[in-house]
Amino acid sequence: MENKILVIGIAGGTGSGKTTLMKNLIAEFSDVVTVISHDNYYKRHDDLAYEERCKLNYDEPAALETDLMARHLDELRHGRSIECPVYDFTVHNRSDETITIVPKKVIIVEGILIFENKPLRDLMDIKIFVDTDADVRLCRRIKRDVNKRGRTLESVLTQYQDTVKPMHEQYVEPSKKFADIIVPEGGKNLVALEMIIGRIRRHLEEA
After folding, report:
1. For residue 194, what are the contacts with CB-CB under 8 A and spacing of at least 6?
2. Is 2's pLDDT higher than 70?
3. Pairing relation of β-strands 82-88 and 93-101?
4. CA separation for the pair 108, 110 (Å, rounded)
5. 103-128 confidence digits (pLDDT tens)
6. In 3-state terms, what secondary structure has residue 75?
7. pLDDT by residue (tens digit) across 81-100?
């Protein structure tokens, strides 16, 4: 095979089950999988106070340095390690740290907007969109942001109504048309999971 690295994109709305699907794949192929997350490429905003950073729209493409992520993914595809930025959700800003990501036989690219950007999605061999009911996604987001990111219920709901929902309808949902596979109910869809696992196994055998 010309390219021995398989790049799998996993997109879908907030709380759709992308992470569950990804964890199931990592559990199956832990030694040969590396993950690169779009969330780590949120732009740095040292010039803004915390209160101002809280008000930014984090659900539009302009909030992310997707061109940098595409360059990094291309490096990984060519067998070169990268220094991935780290984003700290508790302070709404990029950390001073980076993580060294080493290329492996399978690279999973994860994020809500990864199919919206053509140069980025063109680097993916398989594009998977996780499709889950909006009410379920909202409930999952509330649990995650309150328990893991130190947010208040009111702030989560305000952000959802002001930016998350409209941006989902404007950017995330339309990007579903670029997917090769649409998985209803995310990581809980065992039939889809088995199909994806089978596809990765074939790649590894061929490579």
Report:
1. none
2. no
3. antiparallel
4. 6
5. 999 999 999 999 999 999 999 999 99
6. helix
7. 999 999 998 888 999 999 99
User: pTM surpassing 0.70?
Assistant: yes
Helix, strand, coil percent values for the chain (each to nearest 5):
50, 20, 30
Rg over CA atoms, the chain: 17
CA distances to 47, 132, 136, 181, 196 from 26, in Å:
37, 21, 24, 18, 12
Supply the CATH classification number for the domain 6-206.
Answer: 3.40.50.300
Q: Which residues contact 157 (CB under 8 A, 6 or more apart)?
A: 142
Q: What residues contact 203, with CB distance under 8 A and at least 6 apart?
A: 6, 105, 106
HEC per residue, 34-52: EEEEHHHHECCCCCCCHHH
pLDDT band at 144 (very low <50, low <70, confident <90, very high): confident
